[in-house]
UniProtKB/TrEMBL annotation:
GO MF annotation list: 5-(carboxyamino)imidazole ribonucleotide mutase activity
Species classification: Bacteria, Pseudomonadati, Pseudomonadota, Gammaproteobacteria, Cellvibrionales
Protein name as annotated: N5-carboxyaminoimidazole ribonucleotide mutase
Keywords of this entry: Isomerase, Purine biosynthesis
Record SMART domains: AIRC
Positions annotated to bind substrate: 11, 14, 41
Family label: Belongs to the AIR carboxylase family. Class I subfamily.
Reactions catalysed, as given in the entry: 5-carboxyamino-1-(5-phospho-D-ribosyl)imidazole + H(+) = 5-amino-1-(5-phospho-D-ribosyl)imidazole-4-carboxylate
Top-rank taxon, per record: Bacteria
Entry keyword annotation includes Ubl conjugation: no
One Pfam family in the UniProt entry: AIRC
Length: 160
């Protein structure tokens, strides 16, 4: 059986942030797999991983990286499936360098980039579920129910 979402990160130290991507996927019943695949330290692993993703039934890749943050762009260059990038806050620039690296992809290599850190990782998981819901009516229904619960959880308040 194929696992539709793969979450990859440049280093094990990225896991505390990237783990947030698993929350909406788990809530919505979407299967996922998480791996460390470094663009710089394991380039051959990245090449094989990204090229084989469609054959393995992967529908969406979520890639988190800090610093130079080449992981998402390199993965996108090697596969035709959607890649969602998550900038990891690190160093002096706290993820701004990663964000700029991810959003400045050249024409023809599309990467959907989320916010820096935990909110971005969470939204990456949600975006992956939304992409899958386009062709999965049951997931679409769960997603719509999830959205309604989110709406219902915000009370109407009168502020004096």
């Amino acid at each position: 059986m194929s696992i539709p979402v793969n979450i990859i990160m440049g280093s094990r130290s990225d896991w505390p942030i990237m783990e947030r991507a698993t929350a909406p996927l788990t809530e919505l019943g979407v299967e996922f797999e998480c791996k460390v695949v470094s663009a710089h330290r394991t380039p051959e692993r990245l090449l094989e991983f990204a090229k084989s993703a469609p054959e393995r039934g992967v529908k969406v890749l979520i890639a988190g990286a800090g610093g130079a943050a080449h992981l998402a762009g390199m993965a996108a260059a090697m596969t035709w499936i959607p890649v969602i990038a998550v900038p990891i806050p690190a160093g002096r620039l706290q993820g701004v360098d990663s964000l700029l690296s991810m959003v400045q992809m050249p024409k023809g290599v599309a990467v959907s980039t989320q916010a820096i850190g935990e909110p971005g990782a969470y939204n990456a998981g949600l975006m992956a579920a939304q992409i899958l819901a386009l062709t999965d009516p049951q997931l679409a229904e769960r997603l719509q129910e999830w959205r309604q619960q989110q709406t219902d959880s915000v009370p109407w308040e009168v502020i004096d």
